Amino acid sequence: MSNRVLLPHAGPISRRGLIKGGLATAAATTLPLRAFAQEPVSVAGIYTVPVEQQWVSRIHAAAEAARSAGQISYTFSENTANTDYPRVMREYAESGVKLIVGEIFGVEQEAREVVLDYPDTAFLLGSSLPADPAYPNLAVFDNYIQDASYLSGIVAGAMTETGKIGMVGGFPIPEVNRLMHAFMAGVRETRPDATFQVSFIGSWFDPPKAKETAFAMIESGADLLYAERFGVSDAAQEKAILAIGNVIDTQAEYPETVVASALWHFEPTLQAALASIAAGSFEAADYGVYSFMKEGGCSLAPLGTFEGKVPQGALDLVAEKEAAIKSGDLVVEIDDSEPTSI
User: Fold this and answer.
1) Sorting pLDDT into bands at 50, 70 and 90, what band is 38?
2) Could you identify which of 23, 30, 110, 294 might form a hypothetical disulfide with 265, taking C-beta atoms 3.0 to 4.6 angstroms apart as the criterion?
């Protein structure tokens, strides 16, 4: 019988440097790239934020790795406003690009209208909505890295001294909510009495605002922060408390601050799409499953500078739970509801 984890209902860093480091990490820690016996697939990325933003950086890193492996040609547009997104989609499709990747969370319906006008173009887009056969050339994905977030919570629970944890997110949407809930569930494995301050800054890329929000949480007693956004770890570093990272590993920039991070690996998602294109079978499908730990889509970052500083009991529990997740004996339940302070 499967063992389920029940969730409750349910100094400035170099951003470009993170991307360069992320490319190397992606190549070293994720599934090997598949080689296809054909010309490179032309791929275009359309991003509403800078490519160094955590979530988008993982797509960008996977695309760069595939380009380096000779699988694809790759171009991208960043900082694309939602109002411009459909136009940019059309421009790339008109240019003959075979695959377009990106995120349409703020422009769902408009993007789908574009998709229908270019049936010979494959679209692999981050979305809060499920795949729909009415849009046969649109596959959707999301960063379902709740497995790694849960494990990072186990570490966090073992490292907090007061049990008071601050959590700063961008927007309370499913993509963020599920990771916060999983993290909180992990914390309770090692610190059942933990309390959480939860706040959303209303932006995907506003480090100063995230930092100020984190400062307020520290003033209220938090001694460990969940850094879903850039800026949070800066606050933790300045106040000499600990932080847990999300999606990318920033420990190199915060060696005394970031204990662990839940990493997202977009490579399995992109590789699945490229394989479908090569087979001529690309269709409307939900690619979120490729972010699961058992698919190689997420992992807990190495402890690095915190090696030997995390209690062994917590590490043993992480190893036990990770093995169970990978075998399918443990399923970290997905809770997309908005988390609240508790």
Assistant:
1) low
2) 30
